[in-house]
Amino acid sequence: MSRRPALVVHVAGSAGWAGGEAYLLKLAGALDRARFSLGVVVPESGPLVGRLEALGVPTVLVPLAERLVSPGVLLALARRLRRWRPAIVQSHGARSNVYTRLAARLAGVPVVLSTVHNSLFDYEVSPARRRAYVAAERWTSALADRVVAVSAAVARDLVQRYGLPAAKVVVVRNGIDADAFVPCRPPAAARAELGLGPGDRPIGLVARMTEQKAHVDLLDALPAVLARVPALACVLIGDGPLRAAIEARARALGVAGRCRFTGARADVADLVAALEIVVLPSRSEGLPFALLEAMALGKPVVATTVGGCPEVVEHGRTGLLTPPGDPPALADAILRLLECPGEARAMGEAGAARVRADFTLTRMVRELEAIYAAALAARGLR
């Protein structure tokens, strides 16, 4: 007699659209449903809900409070988990991890996993709140069976700065389905929509408009690049709370006329395919899907030496790396790729091969499934 799939409930940190939410959606589409079924707790309404439900994944709203722990919300989450009776619960993000560890143990969930997509030390919060989050992470980590880090850099941070036991932390690097991230239109059509002509040289950034993504560092680099490449155009794909401030910075620098602000888009692959170079000037990262997707399309990339970016980009071979918060270095790297098209093309090809070999969605999901299976076996459940 065949076994019923083990129910895995994920507790999302948000229902918006950023790296953690992309992770959940990719996992939902690729997990072996003969072995594992899925449900997702979301803290709010948002685009993630519809995308999950389109894949047949049930969602339920439990409004995780802004405070680190609200007793009412904690009990509501525990009640929901008791009703669902999952074999495994996996959470995402600092606040979600704390709530979920406590609620899952109250509900008697056999296996509790936490996922860390980025370092708490880089969160855009006050120092006092950061200290509270780190303390809560350390205190409640004993309630988790494993802590999943999306890059080796995040794992090192968890051990060295959070003080988590190394044996509890496991690395499952992010991965993508490169064959699914393909443009539907020719690059010329996307460029025309953006108001760009054949002589323009577009570069771009795909990111939510937050301080962490450092759009302003890219804008600050543009005057130096435009001085040598006047045909440059900068396409900023995405939206977020800092959009008005970023647009104001472009106007103040006198580069707004060479920028295109697209807002959030569903046709990201079309827009990325229309670019010559993709730039990721982030001040903090775990292991960005936007970087993997750009490289999968063969785009030469400039990224910063933060988080897992150097685990993907080998400087001078699969792209270029610069220090974070250094617009002159960013400008130099962009110019190198624009002025040396042969070298840029070779880096793009090497980057695409690297992603297809080592950063696949299949590898990511199979590694996570192995963690699920081992944790269930350790509890005598499989």
Describe this structure in words.
There is one protein chain. The chain is of the alpha/beta class. It has 2 domains: 6-175 and 360-378, Rossmann fold, CATH 3.40.50.2000; 187-358, Rossmann fold (3-Layer(aba) Sandwich). 45% of the residues lie in helices and 16% in strands. The protein has 15 helices and 13 strands. It has helices at residues 19-30, 47-54, 71-84, 94-107, 127-140, 152-160, 187-193, 215-228, 243-253, 268-273, 289-296, 309-312, 327-339, 341-358, 361-378; strands at residues 6-11, 36-42, 59-61, 88-92, 111-116, 146-149, 169-171, 201-206, 232-237, 259-263, 277-280, 301-304, 320-322. A 7-stranded parallel beta sheet has the order 3-2-1-4-5-6-7, sandwiched between helices. Strand 6 (146-149), helix 6 and strand 7 form a beta-alpha-beta unit. The chain starts with 5 loop residues before the first strand and ends with a helix. The mean pLDDT is 92.
